[in-house]
Design a protein that fits this description.
Blueprint: H1 10-17, E1 36-42, H2 47-51, H3 55-60, E2 75-79, E3 84-88, E4 91-92, H4 105-113, E5 142-143, H5 157-165, E6 167-169, E7 172-173, H6 180-189, E8 215-216, H7 226-229, E9 243-244, E10 251-252, H8 274-280, E11 285-288, H9 303-306, H10 320-323, E12 324-325, H11 336-342, E13 353-356, H12 374-386, E14 397-403, H13 415-419, E15 446-449, E16 457-459, E17 474-475, H14 476-486, H15 502-505, H16 515-518, H17 553-556
Parallel strand pairs: 1-13, 1-14, 4-5, 6-16, 7-17, 11-12, 11-13
Antiparallel strand pairs: 2-3, 6-15, 8-9, 9-10, 14-15
């Protein structure tokens, strides 16, 4: 039987609608109990790759390929060079494998998607650093094994516990069809368009369409160390980011920001974001990035957030240093959010909304041996919220784990089938299908951890077919719109309704075909309990929480200093 909680009566409708209302005042405080939302953005994994070995999750209804539990399982792939269909046998590859699959829009997504066939991954050459050896021809067709550690638990046990104890999404898609830089823009802004809808001072990119109908698509390209310099203060020589033409899949550097000395494609964009939305309600926020720049630091590429002093300069927004958490004195300390949760006697340091970009040693990004701390980091963060402390965060906090892109790893669900057919994307006022050239991408994992989520809930729980059954498809916009709902901000309020911002077009929102009954707000199906559940600690982590505090990190991980969460080179 499907595990979806469908609205079937007035009583269940009240349950669904009352998450932030007063219908169950006898069971909850008279005000919205949710005071904090923590959005953790890990790196580069598909559900099949990261959760394919979770037998219990599959038995409960998770739509994951059976590769890890079926030795004879094969996947079909069409070789372009020979026009022959080959059968690939998936293999286990450790979480910290040296393999780094390509996952850019042009070099990976387009050939893999293959106009809706999802059969082209064997045509994409994997990124194999010197000395990297793997037991197979196509490492992208692989899953992470739950390797037993010295403490007797599996490396992935914390992730599996969270998925089986709280909420797991069968159909969570990255909104964009590319790599990390653009994905982080969507996760903070609901778009990667260079400028805002109907900008009177805006540019026309290309020959016809305004720049707000293009989408920044890939990671920055530069001759310098782009991962450290990307954004409105970049000083990398000639750095640019390509955008996708709404009339085709052709990428080019067409947008020049209003910044003295900037050149086409310079990574500084002028459009509204969640900063503007949260300011409407005086809602506090923090962005834990570990660095003031970089392709994972979305606010750093937004002109009105950074307020750059100039190319190679600094961000001058008065709230920058208190909101963008990037410790300059201890750049290898990524424990600041743990400190804000556990070591604050005033209970004021944890913001209402937090975006967390983990250190590369625990971001799940592949290609570096020893970077296997992601599951342990998740355990440390959840336990910090759930364990009794003076602030009592458990009943007032929701933790959302997602991954910024699929990372080039195979996933058997076709996004076009799930979202309504090839070419279905956002619409806009000036063109018939602006956004369709870049929306939607492949699945990424989504875990929702809260005291109001039923145990073992699987959103869209149905393993009977490849399409998304019922209303419960999610994307990055679902997260943004959920934040708006919880803090009583205008739903879909980042930009005008005519412009395709993801917070308005979230597939599980009331403005979509899902409708206001089944989907009164995005992610609503994860929250059906009217009384908070008791917290049970996440156990079995390879690394204890102390490993995520300075200076203990130096004794737990191979590297001694902070590493960016994304180590892609400029070709990804």
């Amino acid at each position: 039987m499907p595990r979806m909680r469908l609205v079937s009566s007035l009583t269940s409708l009240s349950l669904l609608l009352s998450f932030s209302a007063s219908a169950f005042a006898q069971n909850r405080p008279p005000v919205n109990p949710i005071q904090h939302i923590i959005i953790v953005v890990e790196e580069n994994r598909s559900p099949d790759n990261l959760f394919g070995a979770d037998t219990a999750l599959i038995q409960a209804g998770a739509n994951l390929w059976p590769a890890a539990n079926n030795p004879g399982y094969t996947v079909s792939c069409l070789k372009t060079s020979t026009n022959q269909e080959i059968q690939v046998h998936p293999i286990p590859i450790p979480l910290d494998t040296c393999v780094g699959p390509l996952h850019g829009h042009t070099d990976a997504w387009v050939p893999i998607f293959d106009n809706g066939a999802n059969d082209g991954l064997c045509n994409v050459k994997p990124d194999l650093p010197k000395g990297c050896v793997f037991p197979g021809q196509y490492p992208q067709y692989s899953y992470v094994p739950n390797t037993i550690q010295a403490n007797g638990s599996g490396l992935l046990d914390p992730y599996f516990q969270l998925a089986n104890s709280y909420g797991f999404a069968n159909y969570m898609f990255q909104t964009n069809q590319g790599a990390s830089f653009a994905a982080h823009q969507f996760l903070f802004s609901g778009t990667s368009a260079p400028d805002y809808y109907n900008d009177p001072n805006g540019y026309t990119c290309g020959l016809i369409f305004p720049c707000w109908e293009w989408f920044v698509s890939d990671n920055p390209i530069a001759s310098g160390d782009f991962t450290q310099s990307t954004g409105c203060i970049s000083n990398a020589p000639g750095e640019y980011v390509a955008s996708i033409d709404p009339a085709s899949d052709a990428p080019s550097a067409v947008y020049t920001p209003p910044l003295q000395g900037a050149y086409p494609g310079y990574p500084c964009y002028d459009h509204p974001s969640m900063q503007d939305e949260l300011a409407k309600g005086n809602v506090s926020w923090k962005y834990y990035s570990g660095s003031s720049a970089g392709l994972w630091n979305a606010p750093g590429s937004l002109y009105r957030v950074c307020q750059p002093s100039g190319i190679g300069g600094t961000c001058t927004w008065p709230g920058w240093n208190s909101t963008i958490i990037a410790p300059a004195s201890r750049a290898d300390d990524q424990a600041q959010i743990l400190n804000d949760i556990e070591s604050d006697p005033t209970c004021t340091q944890l913001a209402s909304v937090s975006w967390v970009m983990p250190d590369g040693r625990w971001s799940d990004h592949s290609a570096v041996a020893g970077d296997d701390g992601g599951p342990s980091w998740a355990a440390a963060l959840v336990n910090a919220i759930g364990n009794e402390n003076p602030c009592h965060y458990w009943a007032s906090t929701i933790i959302i784990f997602t991954w910024d892109d699929w990372g080039g790893w195979y996933d058997h669900i076709n996004p076009a089938e799930a979202m309504g057919g090839p070419g279905v994307g956002y619409k806009s006022a000036s063109s018939a299908s602006a956004g369709a050239q870049y929306v939607y991408g492949f699945r990424v994992p989504l875990l929702v951890v809260s005291a109001y989520t039923p145990e073992g809930y699987i959103s869209g729980g149905n393993t009977s077919g490849p399409s998304c059954p019922g209303p419960y498809c999610h994307d990055f916009g679902s997260i943004l719109s959920f934040v708006e709902h919880e803090f009583k901000l205008p739903l879909g309020g980042i930009g005008p309704k005519e412009f395709p911002y993801a917070d308005y077009y979230a597939p599980d929102g009331p403005f979509t075909a899902c409708g206001p009954v089944a989907c009164p707000y995005p992610l609503a199906d994860f929250f059906t309990l009217t009384k908070p559940r008791a917290f049970h600690p996440v156990i079995g982590a390879k690394y204890p929480e102390t490993c995520f505090h300075y200076p203990n990190q130096k004794g737990c991980f191979t590297d001694k200093v902070f590493r960016p969460p994304d180590n892609d080179d400029d070709e990804d």
